[in-house]
TrEMBL record:
UniProt signal peptide: none
Coiled coil: none
GO terms for MF: kynurenine-oxoglutarate transaminase activity; pyridoxal phosphate binding
Low complexity: bias regions: 455-483
Domain Aminotransferase class I/classII large: 82-445
Region (Disordered): 455-494
The protein's name in its UniProt record: N-succinyldiaminopimelate aminotransferase
Superkingdom of source: Bacteria
UniProt keyword terms in alphabetical order: Aminotransferase, Pyridoxal phosphate, Transferase
Classification of source organism: Bacteria, Bacillati, Actinomycetota, Actinomycetes, Micrococcales
Amino acid sequence: MVKNPTSGAQDTLPIGWLSTMESMSSHRSPSPDPLALDQPWARTAAGANTLGFETSSSTPPSTPAVMPTIYERTTAAAIAHDAVNLGQGFPDTEGPDWLLQLAARAITEPETGPRNQYAPGMGLPTLREAISDAQARRQGVELDPATQVMVTTGATEGISATILAFARPGSEVLTFEPHYDSYGACAALAGARLVGVALRGPEFRPDLDAFEAAITERTSMILLNTPHNPTGTVFSTEELTRIVALAVKHDLRIMCDEVYEHLVLSDARLPHRSILTIPGAEEVAVAVGSAGKSFSVTGWKVGWVTGSAELVSQVRGVKQFLSFSSGPAFQWAVGHGLQDDQGFFAQNTAELEAGRDLLRAGLEELGLAPNRAEAGYFVLGNVSGITSLSAAQFCRVLAEEVGVAAIPVSALTIQHRANPSDELEHLVRFAFCKDHATIEEGLRRMREHLPAALASHPPADARPANARPATARPASAAPVTAPETLAPASTGTP
């Protein structure tokens, strides 16, 4: 039986939540320490901030259960309140037609080879060679496709297999916050504890002195993410070099999540640099990539792990018993796409940049002080200038009274933070990987209804001058008509 290690019913995590943002806005005690739980599923849920305990008025909490993820909650709130979904990181549009046609051809045309049975455990040679060639062209990294490239069922499996391969039971895994929630879940499943060092605004650059100070004799692994989700920070060569040096010094392994490598916007101050370009990284690091993010085909679940033959072999020792292999038709199509993207990467980043600019301008007008967002899918807004609410409470009001769904950054940390002064408690993630009509509708609703919705929760100082009176959104407000703005719930959209 899994027992709740927290202190009382009034402080526990709610369960069974699907239709409102209530659990995102409640103040509660820190999530249970995953290593204090004896069941692997409970450790995993605690690591992802999704472990809850049933409560009653007469007894302390005792029965554990898994709550919906933050992504499921956000989509459920969008559906329940006819809200524009600017929370989840899925594009509104499909991938390029020519890529979709390649996948369809691979399924149905015999001359492409057998594409509907198991692929080799390391992945189709066509795709592994294309990944190797792409890394050589873009990063100057030479990889043997036979031994240094492994295809995974999405980047998430690559992340999971790598953490399970290198995070020792009872050890600590070090990362920067905020982070993809899979990191905490996989570390806990491995029997390790995730430790976070916050990226601080407005620049969200890593504090490497604090990062080094967080390394202890218990640290076994470092999880990096560049370009970073959700801040859009692109790590510099100097920052990566120092992190690799720390890993070599302390005999740590590095997993570098590089799924946004093709989504660096034109005004970024730094280009993406793979961890594998850094001297010494071949001894300690693997990189994880994603076709879903690169080609806007997130449902295909094609990713990869690259690194030295030794480290990739060790990750494969775990990966082959998770999924064995992934869809060969999709692998075949992605392989051809990486060899010749037909201008898609440049076109896609230009469209993302236009959406980013539109969203940033609107959030700036609303007083939400958006960050630069130089890569990826997201802009962060800081609510502390317009309300005394935390970001989680703000997101509940935003969905229920304004009709816009977003994600509180506190949900992307190791635990929901109880300190109202913490900067991450006031940040909200908005997605700009949407068509302009969706972004404009979300901004229109916020301009018209947000001031009235926040009227009873002014900021600690004076309300910003640009916040003007408005009316709360009526219950009968028309929903978004485009069905793609309300996608089905997902348990792992980063």
